[in-house]
Amino acid sequence: MTRGVLLDLAGVIYDSEIAIPGGIDAVARLRQAGLAIRFISNTTRSSKQRVLERLEAMGLTVTNADVFTPAHAAREWLLRNGRAPYLLVHPGLAPDFYDLPDRDKRAVIVGDAGEAFTYAALNDAFRELSAGAELLALATNRTFRDADGELSLDAGPFVAALEFASLKRATVLGKPSPEFFLSALASMDCPPDQAIMVGDDAEADIAGALRAGLSGALLVRTGKYRQGDEKRFDPRPTATVADLAAATDWIIARRD
Amino acid sequence: MTRGVLLDLAGVIYDSEIAIPGGIDAVARLRQAGLAIRFISNTTRSSKQRVLERLEAMGLTVTNADVFTPAHAAREWLLRNGRAPYLLVHPGLAPDFYDLPDRDKRAVIVGDAGEAFTYAALNDAFRELSAGAELLALATNRTFRDADGELSLDAGPFVAALEFASLKRATVLGKPSPEFFLSALASMDCPPDQAIMVGDDAEADIAGALRAGLSGALLVRTGKYRQGDEKRFDPRPTATVADLAAATDWIIARRD
């Protein structure tokens, strides 16, 4: 029986800030069917506040507690481990790291920094790691679908670069970290084997959710999806469907 | 019996364009002892012409055929495989890729591009790879000793980033590729088991040379050497010595 649904945002609900047709209506249908929903995003170019405003502008009402972002997980990690952040993130994400206490020890936090991934910034981060900082990856996605419709480099390649240089392994906070899926599910009291994930990233969303123990993971052919993605990573999606509207049909038809 | 010696350049002969004390004299002593010498460098910020001029200015006379660089190996690879270069290299290296024939198919060539490693340049290279280009790494060194005396990011981390994003494996042309060591040895008719490598990079120079079958590899404590490097990578150096002068003593004392 399915009681909870985790939805990715970019590529599932919207694309380049424009709602994907049928998506907002699909969320309403899932809610009407009595399913609990959380939004679980690896997008690290906007603050959570900005994400909520974007969804509101599309006609989707969500509360702060409905949305799980890696930056929030990183804040909790920093507080728990007594470290201050050294940010290698997009300027739009920086507000999520305001107001953290000063600490002697640091952690390099890597998000999808885009143009802010300069040689100088990467080299400074590498030197922080050499001096003892820990390495935190908000996400390890390889690519995202850029405004021109083509795939562009996401945070993952730059995390790989810093791991290679520093001989350190990153702690991954966003998808595909099992803890990230499980914390979203815990917030709605839903065990993983009664939950379905819907995403457009066959690796971070789909393989990640199935490894975390979710009962199903549906790959949508919107967003960054490219032909053949369903066979590129293991475990493979439970099903591959056109979009969130089709995923909703699939979930409601099989919910019991 | 030792008949041939391979010498790294940056960190062994010079540091930031300044000759390391005793190095030039050590090369003369190796030559006087009748040992054949080749210089084998992963430096990819200068053209080969510029490297030769730098050595000449330090009082070391070497011919074009004495120096092996990854760019030369890359030119040969491109001609052999019928591909045109897509360069992600330092501007100083570009002259080594002039005058190659036009081809439909391409290969992305990654060197130590320094500040030229912008997000836009890396993303363009990734899109070339997605469109079918092959990935060639001039080197995979993690770090080099920068002008300020600290370690900075070399080409390797950026090769790792592009491999991660494209799901392609790079063909490595410089050290630690066994072919690179063997082609330098072949040019002086010296079998690997009669040759010694001297370098400051425990991974690319030392482990690389020993994996290529050389009879010995001496790690010098100049250049990028950091305490503990001799234990960081396998196989470990045959010996660790102060500098090229000490390495020369070691080689001449044990040559038979």
Query: What's the total number of strands of chain A?
Result: 14
Spatial arrangement of strands, main beta sheet of chain A: 5-4-1-12-13-14
**Portion in helices of chain A:** 25-40%
**β content of chain A, as a range?**
15-25%
Can you describe this structure?
Chain A has 256 residues and is α/β, with parallel strands linked by helices. Chain A has helices spanning 23-32, 48-57, 70-81, 119-130, 155-166, 178-186, 202-211, 244-253; strands spanning 4-7, 14-15, 18-19, 36-40, 67-68, 84-88, 106-110, 134-137, 143-145, 151-153, 171-172, 195-199, 216-220, 239-241. Chain A folds into two domains: 4-42 and 189-253, 3-Layer(aba) Sandwich (Rossmann fold), CATH 3.40.50; 70-172, HAD superfamily/HAD-like (Rossmann fold), CATH 3.40.50.1000. Chain A has eight helices and 14 strands. In chain A, helix 1 runs parallel beside helix 8 and helix 4 (119-130) packs across helix 5. The longest helix of chain A has 12 residues, at 70-81. The model of chain A has no long low-confidence stretch (mean pLDDT 96). Chains A, B: Pfam families: Hydrolase_6 (PF13344), Hydrolase_like (PF13242).
In short:
The structure is a homodimer of 256-residue chains. With 256 residues, the first copy, chain A, is of the alpha/beta class. Helix content of chain A is 33%, strand content 20%.
Index terms:
Phospholysine phosphohistidine inorganic pyrophosphate phosphatase (chains A, B); 14 strands; EC 3.6.1.1 (chains A, B); 6-stranded parallel beta sheet; 256 residues; Rossmann fold; alpha/beta; homodimer; 2 domains
